[in-house]
Design brief:
alpha/beta; Rossmann fold; Methionyl-tRNA Fmet Formyltransferase, Chain A, domain 2; 2 domains; seven-stranded mixed sheet; 9 helices; about 25% helix; about 25% strand
């Protein structure tokens, strides 16, 4: 292709802003942006604009905020931009009429090494499952969710105590860079897509794990599990929505923990503290040291701050 393709970008949260910003910095021809409608939220239920919308306005990019992606009005407005290619980062599921519109198709940036962790929460589930590595995949959208042909992948190490929030921030940058690399490769013809069924770069391709949306039941801690598994559970849900348990009859959210590998004498789920410097909970094969918690009715705080006011019932 002699000229730069006309690109329409679709995304909503801050994670997507990094990719859109990278496209502009790379002098890509972004002709329009699609993001979610404004919605009420926060204190006072005020109308809130998406991070992508705010960025698009600041950079004078044409903007669409369709209520319904299947509406004829949205299709007509999108068609008027005459996109050669669409890029999707953290957006809604697109109807086929929309993702098949551009002649170069629609490219998606996904936070895992596909075919692993297809679904809405790949960052969370990779950590919750104790993976040592994940990554980012650019792929071409097809009808079934997250099943399209792979274009490029980049790997990210998951360190022992890394949280979902920390992985999110790393992946945001890695994904933006991979997107630019992918688009350059598509333009100069140096990238060949690979069906996920033939992808061999992922060692776990014979044991496909999924990444469904996180619900409240997924956040509840089972103290009969081993301590490393529970630690993974906590960091995979931090900082949002937070792992949930009960202590002294109160609902508690855990955000930061460490593993203490010492055989406990107490039953799993027992809360222990000296009331000053530490608090921990017994697991099947060790203790989970609490660093950062949110006690029912209180704000999130470091454990040392919490213990200053804690009185055991």
């Amino acid at each position: 292709m002699d000229k730069k393709p006309r690109i329409v970008f679709m995304g909503t949260p801050a994670f997507a802003v990094a990719s859109l910003s990278a496209l502009l910095e790379a002098k890509m021809n972004v002709v329009g942006v699609v993001t979610a409608p404004d919605k009420t939220g926060g204190r006072g239920m005020q109308l809130q604009q998406s991070a992508v919308k705010l960025f698009a306005i600041a950079n004078n990019l044409p903007l669409l905020q369709p209520e319904k992606l299947k509406s004829p009005e949205f299709f007509d407005a999108l068609s008027a931009w005459q996109p050669d290619l669409q890029v999707v980062v953290a957006f809604r599921m697109l109807p086929e009429k929309i993702w098949s519109l551009p002649p170069m198709g629609t490219l998606h940036v996904h936070g895992s090494l596909l075919p692993q962790y297809r679904g809405a929460a790949p960052i969370n589930w990779a950590i919750m499952n104790g993976e040592k590595e994940t990554g980012v995949t650019t792929f071409q959208l097809q009808h079934a969710i997250d099943t399209g042909d792979i274009l490029l992948q980049d790997r990210i190490a998951i360190t022992e105590n890394m949280t979902a929030g920390e992985l999110h921030d790393t992946m945001m940058v890695v994904g933006a860079n991979l997107l630019v690399k992918t688009l350059n490769g598509l333009v100069d013809g140096t990238i060949q897509s690979v069906p996920q069924s033939l992808a061999t770069t992922n060692e776990f391709s014979q044991n496909i794990k999924h990444a469904p949306k996180i619900f409240t039941a997924d956040c509840e801690i089972n103290w009969d599990n081993n301590v490393q598994s529970i630690h993974n559970h906590v960091r995979g849900l931090a900082p949002f929505p937070g792992a949930i348990t009960k202590v002294d009859g109160k609902i508690v959210k855990l955000y930061s923990t460490l593993v203490e590998e010492e055989k406990p004498n107490e039953i799993p789920g027992s809360f222990l503290t000296d009331g000053k410097t530490f608090a921990k909970i017994a697991c099947k094969n060790g203790y989970l040291l609490l660093n950062d918690i949110q006690w029912e009715g209180k704000k999130r705080m470091p454990i040392a701050v919490f213990l200053r006011g804690y009185r055991k019932p």
